[in-house]
Structure prediction request, 580 residues.
Amino acid sequence: MHRRTLAELAAGLRKKEFSSVELTRHYLERIERGQPALNAFVTITREQALAAAEAADRELAAGRGGPLTGVPIVHKDIFCTQGVLTTCASRMLSNFVSPYDATVVAKLKAAGTVMLGKANMDEFAMGSSNETSWYGPVRNPWNPELVPGGSSGGSAAAVAARLAPAATATDTGGSIRQPAALCGVTGIKPTYGRVSRYGMIAFASSLDQGGVITVSAEDAALVLGAMAGFDPQDSTSVDTPVPDYTATLNDSVEGLKIGLLKEFFDKGLDPENEQRVREALAVYERLGARLQEVSLPNLPLSVPTYYVVAPAECSSNLARYDGVRFGYRCENPRDLMDLYKRTRGEGFGAEVKRRIMTGTYVLSAGYYDAYYLKAQKVRQLIARDFERAFQEVDVLIGPTTPTPAFALGAKTSDPITMYLNDIYTIGANLAGLPAISIPCGFVRGLPVGLQIVGRHFAEAKILNVAHVYQRETDWHLRVPPGWA
Amino acid sequence: MSLTREQIESIAHLARLELNVTEIPVYQESLSRILDFVGELERADTSGIEPMSHPLPGLSQRLRPDVVTEEDRRELYQANAPRVEAGLYIVPKVIE
Prediction:
């Protein structure tokens, strides 16, 4: 069953080829077998999953339910789940049982999906290798010595190893697309404001956006349709109708204008990775799309811009963890200052502390203008570069990452090297644009990703562009050896 | 740029983070390198450019009517608190 896509599983459930309970049991068994090797989960919610599957089967038997009724999914452990441990992979929240559901969780529950568990991730979504988790690193199903990418490493590894047909994820600087690329799966980050951030634990609020990791673009269209939409609980949620993303998947790409970002094909790109991307572009040309080089001159400044804006917002957002109302508290505090400092010193991991301190510095008196204000101005320049490019082309296509997956521990000693992993993905976050990564082949036996960036709210377009490629190729259906 | 030990201690204090002696030199080194790295932004000509205030052009923060929407769920919320007595969050004595 697990070799099928989510769309095929949903169809199988409606045709009564199998029940949701059977499907859920099948995935739970795979998760329990896979967990020691991959560590993709923080929590497995076996009992709740079976109860939800039974309820879904009753709906299906009565001829009710929607397209996702009875479909098992996983939630990244950054999404609050009522009555279920919600840790954000941090010691700080290692005892936090959420009193409410995130809007994304509530919507997918209402759509009839069955939660299998909570996916491991980088602590507070800060990382590109899933090595900063308090619960230990996640391993890449294609090679357990390699990282799965991050921060949504558990979500990507779970879908790649077919431990779940879909997993929710979040993307602040590439945290959906980069692990999707490194694990050989499909991952979409929608437009900023498209998916509610309510109950999605905040890292950098002007960049954070929820999305989903799946096997195919068609699956992503189905799940995103159920996740997206206006939410009065999120003050930056945008009140724009959600189209049926599945309706336009098969639209022709003849005459589509594809922009190749000059800055994406730079010296940092692995030549073999570039080769796979060029081969994918040839597929689009064959289908009648037109390729055109475009330049975004300010794009090379996106990583430094991000590493001012994101830590600044992180230092504000993470000020709430004070050891008073919820979460971790240090032992025997001497006074209130000691309680704050030791709770936070012990409760946060090294990378989270590094970002809080970077943010504190760039926001502090005397430095605010030089760093934070300057970065927000450069961010404006980058956003305008994208705007100009989209006057000429319909989508931008390039690599998702400079290289395939790297070894565990290879980049942990140097934060800058780690940060540069997101060099091709950060731009879309800074400009609030939707982007998707899809598998486009292999380099030295490892999957690589093709990134498609669209205009604001053009999720339907990038899903369409991704889907027509997946009709011509089967890279997205390849399963890592040992997980078939 | 090279941050001193004192600067790291001051940043950590502002951020309410207790650092141990082995952590300080590590952050001294990495924060200095990060600041050098982001210092690249100085090169960009941003004269006359407004800082970005919202990721979507033309949109600003939506406000909701100033009415009570939350119900009292104190007990549920306090179930997650490290220490509660008689419905109150307990912290070390603040005023002597």
Q: What stands out?
A: Chain A touches chain B through 73 residues (CB under 8 Å). Chain A has a mean pLDDT of 97.
